Amino acid sequence: MAPSQPAAVRRATRPRDANETKERLLDAAERLFAERGFEGTSLRALTQEAGTSVSAANYHFGSKEELLRATLLRRVGPMNARRLERLDALERRAAGAPLPLEAILEAYLRPLFEEQEMRSHARFVAARLYSDPPELVSTLKQELFGEVSRRFLDALGRVFPERTRAELGLRFQFSVGSMVHVMSGNLQDAPHLEEPEVQREAAGELLSDASVLRELVAFLAAGLRAPLAATP
Amino acid sequence: MAPSQPAAVRRATRPRDANETKERLLDAAERLFAERGFEGTSLRALTQEAGTSVSAANYHFGSKEELLRATLLRRVGPMNARRLERLDALERRAAGAPLPLEAILEAYLRPLFEEQEMRSHARFVAARLYSDPPELVSTLKQELFGEVSRRFLDALGRVFPERTRAELGLRFQFSVGSMVHVMSGNLQDAPHLEEPEVQREAAGELLSDASVLRELVAFLAAGLRAPLAATP
DNA sequence: GTCTATATGTTGATAGAC
DNA sequence: GTCTATCAACATATAGAC
Fold first, then answer.
1. Helix B209-225 / helix B101-114 crossing angle, nearest 10 deg
2. Which residues of chain A have pLDDT under 70?
3. How many CA atoms lie within 13 A of B143 on its CB side?
């Protein structure tokens, strides 16, 4: 049995729906880039996960690098749009008055916790922006986050009119750091979770999305409000 | 001149000092793993940077993975020792009383900013711990940071006796996130630095090591002190 | 649009001379 | 202890059949 088939029979080259293939490639890329990083993920492993071939990926995206780009663009764009929607809504309602600091932070953070598609994977991908090869993502960062950062810094500037933009920017970066760390999944292997009795308690409610978001907002708001450290 | 030498002459196989070679390999690994990550750095590029050969690296460390391990161990060990020294000194002087929160944070953070050898490279490497392949570094993380985290959480627990360890651990992770973000060099391409006039002002004093440390301590102390967010 | 087959380069690791 | 030479395995990307 199983003789070498005549060349003509090979296999029906079924032209699957192009968009579906693209989506499946993006899904696989998102998952694997998140888990293993860009360099740590081979196009072969990625396309196998997606149920296609290397050449299909290159047909659709041209190169591995462009695939990363597309992967990030698919999530970050909509996510930042939601952030700006929330900020816009707040500003409309406030009519010129400075916004409550907690509300600004929530507008920035909640979209990360909220959308189902975001939840499972894109957080990780967003985190990758801060650890993958800079020459790959640093222009993307500017491109993708330039407007959103400017808008939120403006809002913060109205809350703290006495601070310079540099001072605000530094605190903003501290905040982004906490956020990225959380999104990267570092809460799971936190040092205090070694002790098993604590593990149960913590896993229960405190580490739920809603709770982490609340705690993070409270933490960052207090940090941002802290008076500038005096130059000694 | 320069005829093809007889085989016997080839080149004097100069047995350089073994320790020096090892050090140079560690230096190169530190620099390149920091810049491009583990998977992004080839053993060839690394050994060329170190002025040796791939086989020398494998002779000394056995594998690329072990080289990463050694690279991290060289810096993180002494760094955490300095942290504990500082914490010990504080606790000796306090004689049982709770420590000032800012002092605890400084004991934890200052060693990152202080040692000359740390300054240029190891920060980056430490940051890598939070983005390189988890199966590679997550046990190392426990190994290297278990004790230090426990000790500092204990100290924080005495400052906030009313909080559970899980609550403290969560805030501690937020703090670690800010720290890692700063150490990863993300202050340099912060969003507000686009505007050129600000660039100069910021680069001047605010982004100096001493200033960033001060600001970070103030920020985190306030964040840690913030009352726990109420469960809605 | 998708495949198989292949071109071309690079990887980590090793063998063996010196 | 260090080198050169070489290995098999893997990488990304492309050509061409269907």
1. 150
2. 1-16, 116-127, 131, 133-134, 189-204, 232
3. 11
The 10s digit of each residue's pLDDT in A150-169 is: 999 999 999 999 999 999 99
Residues of chain A with C-beta less than 8 angstroms from the C-beta of B195 = 165
What pTM did the predictor assign?
Answer: 0.90
Region at B128 (left for phi over 0; alpha for psi -120 to 50; beta for the rest): alpha
* Separation between Cα atoms, residue B206 and residue B193, nearest integer Å: 12
Query: Is B178's CB within 8 Å of A180's CB?
Result: no
- Check if residue B70 sits with its Cβ under 7 angstroms from strand C: no
Q: Cβ contact (<8 Å) for B191 and A225?
A: no
Residues A76 and A70: beta-carbon distance below 8 Å: no
Spatial separation of the C-alpha atoms in residues A107 and A129, rounded to whole Å: 20
Q: What is the DSSP string of A179-215?
A: HHHHHTTTTTT-GGGGSHHHHHHIIIIITSHHHHHHH
A window 6-45: Cβ near strand C (< 7 A): 10-11, 13-18, 20-21
* Mutate which: A163, A173, A211, vs B, most B CBs within 10 A: A173
Which domains can be identified in chain B, with CATH numbers?
Answer: 7-62 (1.10.10.60), 75-225 (1.10.357.10)
CB A214 within 8 A of CB B170: no
Q: Which residues on chain A are in Cβ contact (under 8 Å) with B193?
A: 169
- Give A61-108 pLDDT, tens digit per residue: 999 999 999 998 888 888 999 999 999 999 999 998 999 999 999 999
How far is Cα of residue A153 from the mean position of the Cα atoms in its chain? 19
What are φ and ψ of residue B190, in 5° steps?
-65, 150
- pLDDT digits over B180-223, tens only? 889 888 887 666 666 666 555 555 688 889 999 999 999 999 99
Chain D: nucleotides below 7 Å from protein CB are 1-5, 10-18
The pLDDT of residue A5: 39
Q: How many CB atoms lie within 10 A of CB B15?
A: 7
Low-confidence ranges of chain B (pLDDT < 50): 1-12
Q: How confident is the model at residue A199, as a pLDDT?
A: 57
Nucleotide nearest to B66 (CA to C1'): C12
Kindly report the bases of strand C lying within 7 A of a protein C-beta atom. Answer: 1-5, 10-18
